[in-house]
Amino acid sequence: MSKWIYGLLVLIVISAHGFGDTLKVRHDHDPRGGCEGELVITDSGIEYRTEKEKHNRIWAWTDIQTVDRYSPQRFTVLTYADQKILLGRDQPFDFDVLEGEGLDDETFALISKKLPRPVVDRVPEELETVEYEVPVKHLHTFGGCEGTLHFGKDHISYETDHKKDARVWRRNQEVVGVWSVNRYDLEVQVYERDGGDFNRTRNFRFQLKEPLNEEYYTQLRREFLPVR
């Protein structure tokens, strides 16, 4: 069963009762060590509890810009708080899970439902229903990595062995638009931190290893036309 469908079912079941999950984590103070504590996820937001009192935090969902899941064992909570030492750059809180399954698919799906802004998920899975897929090379600033773009009814995913670049995007949340300059090129524009600024969008550019299906591309373009 797709993690998104499962997450939705879980959300329906617990909607009347609320939900909660507690993770034993290490908060990374890079480059100055870290501290251990508990991260508590509830209906109202996320709380970090630790013996180092100055590091305790309580965030309502509206206090969080995004949650960036690198893996079930490592993720970042990006807040609106300023980092004075970095001239007001938004402050991220990096966590490593010390025990258990970590930030699993079900919990992350619930977080995605609660946050008012898009999330970043680097743990894609095979979509339950694939409408179209194409082998690609994802172009980096220097070089790139190879994999497959999968287009499902509700999601677009990039599957690759280069785990840092793997993604799954909800079409109605994270994706801003798609475009192509020729039949061997495709760009996906998404809401994601670009150099630390989450308010800017990020473009993922792909070289296609086979010609783009023009009929499906036309369908995509229509879906993401701006509302007038």
Question: If you had to describe this structure to a student in words, what would you say it looks like?
Answer:
It is built from 3 helices and 15 strands. With 228 residues, the protein is mainly β. It folds into 2 domains: 3-121, PH-domain like; 130-223, Pleckstrin-homology domain (PH domain)/Phosphotyrosine-binding domain (PTB) (PH-domain like, Roll). The strands form 2 sheets. The protein has an 8-stranded mixed sheet, covered by helices on one side. A hairpin with a 2-residue loop joins strand 5 and strand 6 (74-83). Residues 3-17 have low confidence and may be disordered.
Radius of gyration: 19 Å
Number of strands: 15
Low-confidence stretches: 3-17
Q: What fold name goes in the CATH topology slot of the largest domain?
A: PH-domain like
Q: Which sheet architecture does the biggest sheet show?
A: 8 strands, mixed
Secondary-structure content class: mainly beta
Q: Approximately what portion of the residues adopt beta-strand conformation?
A: over 45%
Number of domains: 2
Coarse shape: elongated
Q: What is the C-level CATH assignment of the largest domain? A: Mainly Beta
Helical fraction? 10-25%
**What is the topology, as strand order, of the major beta sheet?**
4-3-2-1-7-6-5-8
Distance between the ends: 37 Å
CATH architectural name of the largest domain: Roll
Number of helices: 3
CATH superfamily of the largest domain: Pleckstrin-homology domain (PH domain)/Phosphotyrosine-binding domain (PTB)
Mean pLDDT: 86
How are helices and strands ordered from N to C? HEEEEEEEHEEEEEEEEH
